[in-house]
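Sat 14:20. Reprocessing the chain from the morning session after the first attempt stalled halfway. Input below, unchanged.
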Amino acid sequence: MEIRENRIGILTYTIQVNNQEGEVLEEATIDQPRTMLFGTGRLLKSFDKKLLGLRSGDRFEFVLSPDECFGAYQEELVMDLPKTAFMINGQLKPEALEIGRTVPMVDSDGNPFDGKVISVHTDTVRMDFNHPLAGKHLFTRGAVLHVREATEEELNPSASSCGCGSGSDSCCGGNGGQQHNSNGGCGCGCSDSPDEAHACECGCNESYAEVQACECGCGG
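Finished this time. Tokens:
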């Protein structure tokens, strides 16, 4: 049986930055393989497309360009926000302003996104809203362990509480760079200009191959 729409693939793989010598971002091993549903928008389109047609026992190796995963680095997504944007329930949490910290935020429409604190000033905080992997290639290699038909429950999971409005229950915030993942099947409508953004408390899961559902609770 081959990988195609509405089928489950059980995979082992390693994802690294740029090439096989790069930092390991994610790994699914023979002891802990990854179970993935194909052809439904829950995977990065580029990742999904590369594996379609493969069968149990097949091995794969490919490189995804920035345009196929997290996009090019954009200088315009480095901007200053007022410190008031980081208040939660009327209080400013000092730990949210640590340089290098990634802060989950929402814009005025409730759309989630992440930003990295670059510097802190008297009244403003300089943030980088590029995905940490913007401008990077992703080198991926692995093997297909098994392919099967998806169950009805796998095809129609219970709705997430993310509130993104995505038909696949996917949340852009899963990888911390939602607005640049143009091939990821994101249905959140995330803003590239996070005007009136403010911090929130999210706990989204990370996977560089999947468009993850998450439990944001960041609606306002």
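The first strand starts at residue 7 and ends at 17.
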